[in-house]
Design goal:
five-stranded mixed sheet; globular; 422 residues; binds the ligand Nc1nc2c(c(=O)[nH]1)N[C@H]1C(S)=C(S)[C@@H](COP(=O)(O)O)O[C@H]1N2; OxRdtase_Mopterin-bd_dom; molybdenum; Sulfite Oxidase, Chain A, domain 2; binds molybdenum atom; Sulfur dehydrogenase subunit SoxC
């Protein structure tokens, strides 16, 4: 279907062209594909020789032709790779699930490698019974499965003062969306018995950074999970093996990896990650604290700077992702003329609470330059703002929580560039 012949010769090619034209009226012709026809008429190595037997690769990997599909870092962003970040290659993915090997990594003291037999999760503080769980203990509580996005609050943080990084992997790739299997945090807290004065929870990681965050008890008892599986298999070491906290819809920093301790207290701890980091400095010098919920956001992943249009004018598919920390995404709008006219995109795939949504917009490209934007609406009625609207409220001193509308400029060649127009 992707190969449409120009139809110089009559017979089959002309028929194919005709058939396509009637079955899908919007399609126009592509370029003749003379050079590529050898793959049809000549025997190839892969159909004249036997392939690999089973077990050549006991744990499977993507095709060798997909080697460019990988997490990438931006070296100048951080001083050292152990307290650093890499980015999910959003422009290479489709659907809503992030494959485990491509989920971006953010750690403050490197990846801990923990033997699950040596791991313990402790609950202490304002509880009736201080408890210590082994991984085996955790497996004996009822478990649940949920798909959630995790977005670092710093995602798009480099774009506050203007367009900077050329690719949605770098502008928007501090996000992943996977299915978690875990025990409800509520179940474990009930096992310990939270005292009436217990209003806050401190979650602590077992890695070298010993990362901690304060979480209000209301959220802890609502939808948080203590998760040990992602997309069906054990968490990857990078994602907190053997166990991490899942804090749906809230900033990634709170999703403590290598979770070793939960302390119940009567007030927030005001540790490093919720004071000097992960607060938003406003124009007047005051800072917003505890900005936990991730606002609705979207981005066009294709085309984008790392994934230009290569097919010239004609039928063109735009696709992207949208999400909200407050619910689902009932609607995404797309513009190809920089916001003069908006079209409702088609959402395809599951629409789950606090999970990524996949949208598509198909159109006939006339080969002229385009200004592409997407705009998410969430189930609370909130509409994703432009970057100018966001800066009006927040100034330009922020790093975190930049959910402004992204623009890609497409030129006549189909090349895409990160620009800002609104
Ligand atoms: N123990 C521990 N948990 C942690 C971190 C860390 O450095 N150590 N980084 C946090 C931050 S800032 C983010 S954005 C997410 C990233 O999760 P990921 O590495 O699975 O993408 O984990 C959070 N949990
Ligand atoms: Mo983060």
């Amino acid at each position: 279907m992707s190969v449409i012949f120009k139809g110089k010769k009559p017979s089959r090619r002309a028929f194919m062209k005709g058939a396509l034209a009637t079955s899908a009226g919007a399609l126009s012709t592509g370029a003749a594909l003379a050079a590529g026809e050898k793959v049809i008429t000549e025997v190839q190595p892969w159909n004249s020789e036997l392939g690999d037997g089973v077990d050549v690769m006991p744990y499977g990997k993507p095709s060798e032709f997909e080697e460019h599909v990988k997490r990438r870092t931006v070296e100048w962003l951080t001083a050292d790779p152990v307290s650093s970040i890499n980015f999910t290659p959003l422009h290479e993915l489709d659907g809503i699930i992030t494959p485990n090997g491509l989920a971006f990594e953010r750690h403050h003291g490197g990846t801990a490698h923990i033997d699950p037999k040596e791991h313990r999760l402790m609950i202490n503080g304002l509880v009736d019974r201080q408890l210590v769980f082994t991984m085996e203990d955790l497996m004996r509580f009822p478990r649940e499965n949920h798909v959630y996005f995790l977005e670092c609050a710093a995602n798009s943080g480099m774009e506050w003062r203007g367009a900077q990084l050329n690719g949605c992997q770098f502008t928007h790739g501090m996000i992943h969306n996977v299915m978690y299997t875990g025990v409800k945090l509520r179940t474990l807290l009930e096992e310990a018995g939270v005292k009436p004065s217990g209003k806050w929870l401190l979650a602590e990681g077992a890695d070298a950074s010993g990362m901690t965050r304060s979480i209000p008890m209301e959220k802890a008892l609502d939808d948080c999970l203590v998760a040990f599986k992602m997309n069906g298999e054990a968490l990857r070491p990078e994602q907190g093996y053997p166990v991490r906290l899942v804090v749906p819809g809230w900033e990634g920093n709170m999703w403590v990896k290598w979770l070793r301790r939960l302390e119940v207290g009567d007030q927030p701890w005001h540790h490093r990650e919720e004071t000097s980091k992960y607060t938003d400095l406003l124009e007047n010098g005051k800072a917003r604290r505890f900005t936990w919920e991730m606002d609705a956001k979207s981005v066009i992943t294709n085309p984008s700077p790392q994934a230009p249009l290569t097919h010239k004018k004609g039928p063109t598919v735009i696709t992207g992702l949208a999400w909200s920390g407050r619910g689902t995404i009932p609607r995404v709008d797309v513009t190809i003329d920089g916001g003069i006219t908006w079209h409702q995109a088609r959402i395809s795939g599951p629409s789950l609470d606090k999970s990524m949504h996949r949208f598509y917009f198909e159109f006939d490209w006339d080969g002229k330059p385009l200004l592409l934007q997407s705009r998410a609406h969430d189930s609370t009625g909130y509409v994703q703002p432009t970057k100018d609207q966001l800066r009006k409220h927040r100034g330009v001193n922020s790093i975190y929580h930049n959910n402004g509308i992204q623009t890609w400029a497409i030129d006549e060649e189909g090349k895409a560039e990160n620009v800002e127009i609104s």
